[in-house]
Design a protein that fits this description.
globular, alpha+beta, Jelly Rolls, 6-stranded mixed sheet
Length: 455
């Protein structure tokens, strides 16, 4: 092999490790000027390095290595030796596995069909992984035709058309296009604004087409699938069967039967629904409300948990918001009144609303009280927390789902100003504006606050 190739291999492996000094950089630049064909290798290096770093959370390393080994076996002998030499230098420097794989692929001067396919396919969605502890990983670009084998945690996909899809492991699916997912296994929740109507999910022999706005699918590897509609309606098509599935209803099918009515059961979608709604995690007595239709969510009663109920979504920030809390910090209600702040509108921002609520359905009698503590973390920063009786009433129509009934304006609604007691209601907003921590003392009426996030 030519001496300049050996020198290039050594410099390239140093570049991968980030250990090139000024002299090394000068040598590498000189080689690239003298041998411009090496620029192709460097370009491939950058493309594949980025590709592998994006796809690492979505695929096992063993799968990538297997694909590369098969590709190496098909190489002519001269190129095979070139790869082996580069591997040896990289092993000697003890690079981590991802860099080793990236360097090996980049060293191939002749791009294979797999490379051409992956680098040319457009990115149609951004994926975020969520582990069991509620920790998000970095956003990853998902390309058209991407096959994803999700072995643990949850994944949230945000499409350019506005559709948001959450999938719970174990799951296997293909993001076939910007408006189509092929689901082979897993639980899926999707929310589709008007801009994403027509979004489709295909399971075994059945195609779901969104009409608006939120639905869930549970598919198993044997070909059985269940479909529920949380809001709006969807169209189901299997062979010659076509059904319009309405809000609050469900259907199921398998390999041996057609579409049939099923029990509307939302328990399988508790985790995906919360993640899809922007609720990252909760602690203590605070819990995401069980997924349901907007009307049923508005009528929930609970004297054992503080429920986080998604309300209005993707709303324009086109008018001011009056709220008691607008900056990070801690508020303990020890006075009869709490001052409000006016937050001016910001063009381009989109708002989501959540009701954080406990309601014992007036089951408690006399001076009996329950004390609740906990927190909720959102995927977007909180810009306002509304907790007074009048400020809640003033924002019910604007931020509540349009189909929800107006919540009665009881004088006990919101957080009571318990200035003459030893235990006070408390609300905190973290410095990063993502986590709201509450302490509610609840008696014979509801305690609720409205949290507004912005994107």
């Amino acid at each position: 092999m030519n001496h300049y190739k050996e020198q290039f291999e050594d410099l390239l492996s140093g570049l991968m490790e980030g250990q090139l000094n000024e002299s090394d950089n000068t040598q590498l630049n000189g080689l690239l000027r003298e041998h411009p064909e090496l620029l192709i290798v460097v370009r491939q290096h950058l493309e594949i390095s980025e590709l592998i770093s994006h796809q690492k959370p979505l695929r096992s390393s063993e799968h990538v290595i297997s694909e590369l080994n098969n590709h190496f076996k098909s190489l002519p002998r001269e190129e095979d030796i070139f790869v082996e030499n580069l591997f040896e230098r990289i092993r000697h420097r003890r690079l981590n596995r991802r860099l080793l794989i990236a360097a090996a692929v980049i060293a191939l001067a002749i791009p294979g069909a797999l490379l051409a396919l992956r680098t040319s396919a457009p990115v149609v969605a951004q994926a975020t992984l969520l582990d069991s502890s509620g920790n998000y990983s970095t956003h990853e670009g998902v390309r058209e035709g991407e096959h994803i084998d999700l072995k643990s945690g949850l994944m949230r996909l945000e499409f350019g058309n506005g559709a948001v899809v959450a999938v719970e492991s174990p799951a296997k699916f293909e993001v076939s296009s910007a408006k189509l997912i092929n689901l082979k296994l897993g639980k899926l929740n999707a929310w589709c604004p008007e801009s994403a109507h027509g979004f489709q999910v295909v399971t075994s022999e059945t195609t779901l087409t969104d009409i608006g706005t939120a639905f869930g699918i549970d598919a198993d590897p044997n070909g059985s699938s269940t479909f529920i509609v949380l809001e709006g309606s969807v169209k189901l098509k299997k062979n010659n069967q076509v059904h319009l599935l309405e809000e609050g209803t469900a259907m199921s099918t398998d390999q041996h039967t057609g579409l049939r009515n099923s029990t509307f059961e939302t328990a399988p979608y508790v985790r995906t629904w919360a993640v899809n709604s922007g609720i990252v995690k909760t602690t203590g007595a605070v819990r995401p409300a069980k997924p349901d239709t907007p009307e049923r969510l508005a009528k929930l009663y609970n004297d054992t948990e503080v429920m986080v109920i998604p309300e209005g979504r993707d709303l324009s920030f086109d008018q001011k918001i009056v709220a008691e809390i607008s900056t990070p910090g801690h508020l303990e209600i020890t006075t009869e009144t709490v001052p409000t702040h006016s937050i001016p509108p910001v063009a381009g921002l989109r708002l989501n609303s959540y009701l954080v609520r406990v309601d014992p359905e007036s089951k408690l009698k006399g001076a009996e009280h329950i004390y609740f503590q906990g927190s909720v973390t959102f995927d977007q920063p909180v810009i306002a927390i509304i907790l007074g009786n009048s400020t809640l009433r003033e924002t019910d129509i604007r931020f509540g789902n349009g189909k929800w009934p107006r919540i009665p304006g009881s004088h006990l609604r919101g957080l009571e100003m318990n200035y003459n007691t030893s235990i006070h209601d408390e609300v905190s907003l973290s410095e990063d504006r993502r986590t709201v921590t509450i302490a509610f003392q609840t008696g014979g009426s509801s305690d609720d606050i409205r949290v507004i996030t912005a994107k």
